[in-house]
Amino acid sequence: MIIQSQIRCIYNFVRPIVPTRIVSCLSRELSTNSYINLMCKQQHYREALDTFNFHLKNSSIQLEPSTYVNLILACTNVRSLKYGKRIHDHILKSNCQPDLVLQNHILNMYGKCGSLKDARKAFDTMQLRSVVSWTIMISGYSQNGQENDAIIMYIQMLRSGYFPDQLTFGSIIKACCIAGDIDLGGQLHGHVIKSGYDHHLIAQNALISMYTKFGQIAHASDVFTMISTKDLISWASMITGFTQLGYEIEALYLFRDMFRQGVYQPNEFIFGSVFSACRSLLKPEFGRQIQGMCAKFGLGRNVFAGCSLCDMYAKFGFLPSAKRAFYQIESPDLVSWNAIIAALANSDVNEAIYFFCQMIHMGLMPDDITFLNLLCACGSPMTLNQGMQIHSYIIKMGLDKVAAVCNSLLTMYTKCSNLHDAFNVFKDISENGNLVSWNAILSACSQHKQPGEAFRLFKLMLFSENKPDNITITTILGTCAELVSLEVGNQVHCFSVKSGLVVDVSVSNRLIDMYAKCGLLKHARYVFDSTQNPDIVSWSSLIVGYAQFGLGQEALNLFRMMRNLGVQPNEVTYLGVLSACSHIGLVEEGWHLYNTMEIELGIPPTREHVSCMVDLLARAGCLYEAENFIKKTGFDPDITMWKTLLASCKTHGNVDIAERAAENILKLDPSNSAALVLLSNIHASAGNWKEVARLRNLMKQMGVQKVPGQSWIEVKDQIHVFFSEDSSHPQRGNIYTMLEDLWLQMLDDGYDPCQRLIVM
Description:
disordered N terminus; Serine Threonine Protein Phosphatase 5, Tetratricopeptide repeat; mainly alpha
């Protein structure tokens, strides 16, 4: 015994540098069982397993049940399924009769190693089982994403006459939470109470986590209140639940209550949750105080708390503080680097790339989250070069086939106005693309005025594995509305009805907008009336549609109906009703609406509202009032305001105000052809031919050319575009013949082309 003790002391002292050959020699001098047990006791699990393997190959060994237990535990700790199966097989072939403890350890080993088939096979051969056996199986299924099997196992356990304990409840409640079965969760809660475990921490903490996962914060709070002696997990679960479900103030109050108890030491996860609460509340003063507490508890350099602190300061816009929080992290991991890159991505793409380079220099390999954050920073044509560099690195890393990364590349190229490369990215991943990929490329076509490509891709999508969702439909309907493409819009409407997507309020809103812009107000109203729960966008879309087509009274009636139903209008709604007042000349009512929208509803006027008021006054002939209103508004007058006034000056023949309006337009945009043309026409109508000649010469000297008008029409799924005096259309002969016939019919009906002289 003295010699063996001395050998053990020598081995413990020199173990890190002793070769395997010497270890094998030493182990022969000790009994195999004692040596393996010693290695396991000292947590040298690999050495214990190597010793078992060595003796298995070189001699027949007889192991004690306790040695088998330690070997199975070693396999569990190092997650070695290979050794676990080998040891289990050795047990079955030996004379050892495994007791219930050893059998349960075997079940647990298989569960931890992710081999539930082997666990179930071992479980089914057990002649004697205990609650622990059932609980291990339930926990194994739950931990390995087989929550339905865990629930079935729990039911079988009850039918077999076994009563669950708090560990069983903890495992099955977790499985229920993963499965998302809220009804079963309520039943389990009742079973916990009935079984008398409603005062045991494991079950109670599991119930808190379950209820917060299901969004039932009141039930979680009730369970938390019933806990007589809470542990740190109880506090952490409740604080995290409050934060995640939007009850940030309650989370901070609960953190304060825990701190006042004086017996709990918050961990990094609790600090992470309260930092998130401060971030959502936009309360930097709270965040700074809690940061001090975090440092006081020795977690100032913790990676988890540091990431949350960095994210909080980034949300506040305090980037120097965010960087300081990052630099304080003792050993920043990939998640930490991703957090600081994400923080900088919204403000400075070059600095985000600098931190990315630093991360690479530190030997860390970026993942898809890293590139998603970097690509978010490239959101304008100015950052296209950086975005392309990131794209090159993505290809080098082999992540160019990852759907999420490619979708971000699509969005980046779209925002950078590089539609060509966006199409190339989509082409490369079209086979592996998901629904987000299709929606991204359709959105790119819509934003960059490529309706033909959008319609072509939409047709291809219908034959792909990815079927359109509400986002797809709203994008295509938006394109139809911009083109006034009624034929395609009707087809998309039929598809949305057939697929059931029409019940989505966002789809209904787009349909209302599309039909309104196509001039089919009856169709728009039908869709509106068919919408189960119209929101403010639904009301506003129809009101604006009525106003745009001169149906001012219908727009105002709809607005009054909306107000009577208690629906609060927004900025767009008021644009619609002010435009309606303008079309039917209700100056007084327009003034009243404009003056009360901020006082009564807190909606401050925007430039668009000011332009509507200018149009309202000018259309009604109140040109001087409109001019004074422009000067007195809180905004710097823009071209839209002055153009609106100038157009009305032409209608009412006011040359003086027209000259001042045109002068202000040219100050803002010296090459604005529309202002010069309008002013020239106004002078022509007034017979001021000298001014007409002067303006035409001025336009020639400045090189200003009138932008030709353009119109289009869709016939049999093809869009025909026309310009003024256009002769490029393949059917121009037939078109001009028809125009001549119409001209002759107009003359026969008494039209006098000289009645209204227009020079330009």
